[in-house]
Each structure stands twice: as structure tokens, then as C-alpha cells.
């Protein structure tokens, strides 16, 4: 079944900000805490920041990605910056529980892969928690063609992550 999805680039607005913060808060264990000033900073630094929603104030799904030049100090982002000269890093992708199974994450990633390819990037990278485990995200990213390229224990030791890469260079050449 094909889903005709329109994903919108995120623009600042109080109702949308509230919806995006609520979506993030519902998945804080997998993502990280976020407040309005931090959300505005992330969107301003983003290579691509998109959301899916029925209206300009809805947020059924969210994707925020940075390229290597972003002003971002996440240890996961820095891990990739230490290893690659160019990349697009998925900082967060989340779908509201009520909107799962509709193809939103897949459509957001398709838009990201096109934007990365158009900008001349050959890799999209991300991390997935291994402790605590996130088997749904593991399976989803594997279906999209991501492969593990490293692992780390984050400061404080409460989280362990797997670093993944999706190569898009071959797609750009065809």
C-alpha cells in the first residue's frame, strides 16, 4: 500500500513547537530531552528538519538531521565528525504511537536521502541505542540498508549505542 505523504520543513510557530516537544517527550528515552530554545537551535542548525502532520500545528512524525558543519556538541555527532569529512547525521527521527505503521518514517528518510544525494553527500549516519535496546529501530534501519560501523558507551554509562551508516554514493551514480 502506497502512502502519499507530504512532509513539511519545520518552521517556527508556537502550536507546532508545542506539538513537536510533546512528540519528543513521549520518546525521550530513545531520543533526549528537548525544550523550546533547544528545538529552535536544532532546527536552525539542521541540514534538514521535517515533520509530518495533518495541519500546520500537528506533529505525527519528526526528523532532524545535520551535516558535518553543524554547531552541535552531541557525543554521537562528534563521533562521526571525528571519522568522516562529510556526512549527514540523523539526530532524531520519531513517529507518534497513534501514527505508526503509516510509512511516515520511511517517507522522511526517503526525503533525507534525496536531499543528501542532491547536496553531494555519500553517507547518512545515525546511532541506535543498544542499551537500553531498541529492536524496532534496529529492524527499521536494517530494512533501509544501514550497516553498523561502530559502538560506544555514552558518558555516564547509562546508554550504549551502535553507530550506523547508509551509503548513497551508488544511487547518485545511476
From TrEMBL:
Highest rank taxon of the organism: Bacteria
Question: Key word Zinc-finger present in the record?
Answer: no
Annotated ranges, domain N-acetyltransferase: 26-169
- List, alphabetically, the SUPFAM superfamilies matched: Acyl-CoA N-acyltransferases (Nat)
Q: Which UniProt keywords apply?
A: Acyltransferase, Transferase
The entry lists its GO molecular-function terms as: acyltransferase activity, transferring groups other than amino-acyl groups
The yes or no answer to whether the keyword Acyltransferase is present is yes
Q: Which InterPro entries match?
A: Acyl_CoA_acyltransferase, Bact_Acetyltransf, GNAT_dom, UCP028520
Question: Mind telling me what this protein is named?
Answer: GNAT family N-acetyltransferase
Amino acid at each position: 500500500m502506497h502512502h502519499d505523504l507530504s512532509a513539511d520543513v519545520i518552521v517556527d510557530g508556537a502550536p507546532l513547537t508545542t506539538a513537536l516537544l510533546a512528540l519528543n517527550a513521549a520518546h525521550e528515552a530513545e531520543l533526549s530531552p528537548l525544550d523550546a530554545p533547544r528545538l529552535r537551535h536544532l532546527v536552525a542548525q539542521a541540514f534538514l528538519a521535517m515533520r509530518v502532520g495533518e495541519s500546520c500545528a500537528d506533529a505525527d512524525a519528526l526528523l532532524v538531521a545535520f551535516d558535518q558543519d553543524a554547531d552541535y556538541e552531541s557525543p554521537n555527532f562528534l563521533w562521526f565528525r571525528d571519522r568522516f569529512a562529510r556526512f549527514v547525521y540523523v539526530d532524531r527521527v520519531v513517529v507518534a504511537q497513534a501514527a505508526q505503521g503509516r510509512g511516515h518514517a520511511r517517507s522522511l528518510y526517503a526525503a533525507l536521502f534525496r536531499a543528501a544525494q542532491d547536496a553531494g553527500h555519500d553517507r547518512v549516519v545515525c546511532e541506535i541505542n543498544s542499551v537500553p535496546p531498541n529492536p524496532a529501530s534496529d529492524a527499521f534501519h536494517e530494512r533501509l540498508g544501514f550497516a553498523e560501523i561502530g559502538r560506544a558507551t555514552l558518558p555516564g554509562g547509562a546508554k550504549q549505542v551502535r553507530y550506523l551508516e547508509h551509503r548513497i554514493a551508488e544511487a547518485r551514480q545511476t
